[in-house]
Design a protein that fits this description.
Elements: E1 2-7, E2 12-19, E3 24-32, H1 48-66, E4 72-77, H2 79-83, H3 87-98, E5 102-104, H4 107-121, E6 128-134, E7 139-145, E8 148-155, H5 159-166, H6 174-188, E9 202-205, H7 208-219, H8 228-241, H9 257-274, E10 280-281, H10 286-298, H11 303-314, H12 319-335, H13 344-353, H14 365-375, H15 383-395, H16 410-427, E11 438-441, E12 445-450, H17 451-456, H18 458-473, E13 478-483
Parallel strand pairs: 1-4, 4-5, 6-9, 9-10, 12-13
Antiparallel strand pairs: 1-2, 2-3, 6-7, 7-8, 11-12
Helix pairs in contact: 1-3, 4-10, 5-6, 5-9, 6-9, 7-9, 8-9, 12-13, 12-16, 13-15, 14-15
């Protein structure tokens, strides 16, 4: 049983679902209209009131989650948390409130998960499709075929900002709508060509915005599908109301009227700019994608594995060297007896990618690799995971002062020691018999090696002496003992 929590810019949502052998069936769904994006002040900070409202909701979600026996939980935050300048202050409080780590995901990762949710809800495996998701703070366009994504982009235009910026005080008129539509089109016009209809067979609207607009169109007799004509007709109905407070239409909850007008402007902008004939609403998206991702991880089909292998090939890493360092690093790490497996997989992936910076320069390649890992769009990885890997890669070579603030965590230190030694042994061209090595990492680092290895590999003693010096600089004693 899985739980997906989506901390969106407009609403916080929770899904609890169970895989029944073929599909994921939703057992529980909760939605709270937090309006987080509307709680950003002029400086881009979340206001105290907005943060408190969010924390109260997260505490309620924690109670809901506690009522189920869950195999995995994933909490993701999207646009509003991406742009909030004080998100680093709010995040620890939010994690404490809900009781789980919160991942602030990139727009591209959001798009990947949205597409995963949609693709698994459709019984058309080879279909070429465009998925559009209009959220409170951003809009994602994803082009794919079956389960495979071909292109994904995130645009910083969402229902909340569009509503607040163009429908001032809730006033709805023709001039405001046209300005909002033109603004939306301006975000998409440069990126539009790859998303035109000749590249896909069906367009799906995965967001609550698209589904709500479809409901309003059908339930109020405006039309039977979402297309340019019915969207324009709905726009005219809203204009005739004159104000958000006067909008009373079947399929639209009164509290959603204030943001749906901005969403309608964005959807019209997309339909016009991309020349979309029909948008098919679908009851699937980010939360379903998160649960499918958790399920696939549980059956050893982790998207992160493929991402790392793609990077190894794309950046021309020496696969033999990379695999050797990764295997040796895990063997050494196991000897240190870490308290948990928190760093195990990230250590392995970091080892595979530790030389990817050589495509930039052999000088300081570890710094280039660390920067690339932390800032690249890596499908399946969160920003926090990428930062962890970047730190490990930065720390595998040279001085340790650059990661000094992270050396207070014992398991991280053990991972760094394992990676540095694995690289050191690879450079010394040693074939390691790990039954003849003893590595302990507690308050100090203790390494036992066969005395014959030092004589057989002349550079080994030099590298080990340098290693002792590097650890000494950050106040960690590194002792080396040779055995017969």
């Amino acid at each position: 049983m899985y739980a997906a929590v989506d901390l969106g810019s407009n609403s916080f949502r929770l899904h609890i679902g169970k895989h029944d052998g073929e599909a994921i069936r939703v057992l529980k769904s909760v939605r709270e209209p937090i309006r987080l994006a509307a709680g950003l002040d002029e400086q881009g900070n979340l206001t105290p009131a907005a943060m408190q409202t969010a924390l109260n909701c997260l505490k309620n979600f924690r109670t809901v989650l506690a009522a189920y026996k869950l195999d995995a939980v994933r909490v993701v935050a999207t646009s509003a948390m991406r742009v909030a300048r004080n998100s680093a202050v709010f995040l620890p409080q939010a994690e404490l409130a809900i009781g789980y780590p919160i991942e602030i995901i990139s727009g591209e990762e959001e798009g990947r998960l949205i597409y995963m949710g949609v693709a698994n809800a459709l019984a058309t495996p080879g279909e070429r499709r465009l998925v559009i998701d209009i959220g409170g703070g951003s809009t994602e366009l994803i082009l794919g075929r079956g389960q495979e994504i071909e292109k994904v982009e995130s645009f910083s235009v969402g229902t909340v900002k569009q509503s607040l910026s163009f429908f001032i005080g809730g006033r709805v008129d023709a001039a405001s709508f046209e300005a909002a539509i033109l603004s939306a089109r301006s975000h998409f016009e440069d990126a539009a060509p790859p998303y035109h209809p000749q590249f896909w067979k069906q367009c799906y609207g995965s967001s609550g915005t698209a589904r709500t607009i479809a409901d309003i169109i059908i339930k109020n007799g405006i039309g039977k599908e979402v297309n340019g004509a019915t969207l324009s007709a709905l726009k005219q109905r809203f204009i005739e109301c004159g104000h958000v407070s006067k909008i009373d239409m079947a399929g639209l909850r009164p509290e959603r009227a204030g943001t749906i007008i901005g969403g309608l402007a964005i959807l019209i902008g997309l339909v016009r700019e991309l020349e979309i004939p029909v948008v098919q609403p679908i009851e699937a998206g980010l939360r379903m994608g998160v649960m499918w991702d958790l399920h696939l991880r549980s059956i050893k089909r982790d998207r992160r594995e493929q991402t790392v292998l793609d990077c190894v090939q794309r950046f021309h890493c020496d696969e033999k060297r990379a695999n050797r360092v990764a295997d040796d690093a895990l063997a050494l790490y196991a000897q240190t007896k870490p308290a948990s497996d928190q760093y195990t997989r990230h250590l392995y992936w970091s080892a595979l990618l530790h030389e990817m910076g050589m495509v930039v320069s052999h000088t300081g390649y570890h710094k280039h690799a660390a920067y690339m890992i932390e800032n690249a769009d890596l499908p399946g990885f969160t920003a926090r995971e990428q930062k962890t890997m970047a730190r490990l890669i930065a720390a595998h070579k040279g001085n340790l002062r650059k990661v000094a603030e992270a050396l207070g965590e014992p398991d991280f230190v053990k991972a760094v020691v394992a990676l540095r030694l694995a690289v050191l042994f690879m450079h010394s061209r040693m074939d390691i018999d790990f039954s003849l090595i003893r590595l302990r990492v507690k308050s100090r680092i203790e390494l036992e090696l066969r005395r014959s290895w030092i004589s057989e590999h002349p550079t080994l003693s030099y590298w080990l002496e340098k290693e002792q010096e590097q650890w000494d600089e950050v106040g960690v004693d590194f002792s080396l003992r040779s055995t017969t």
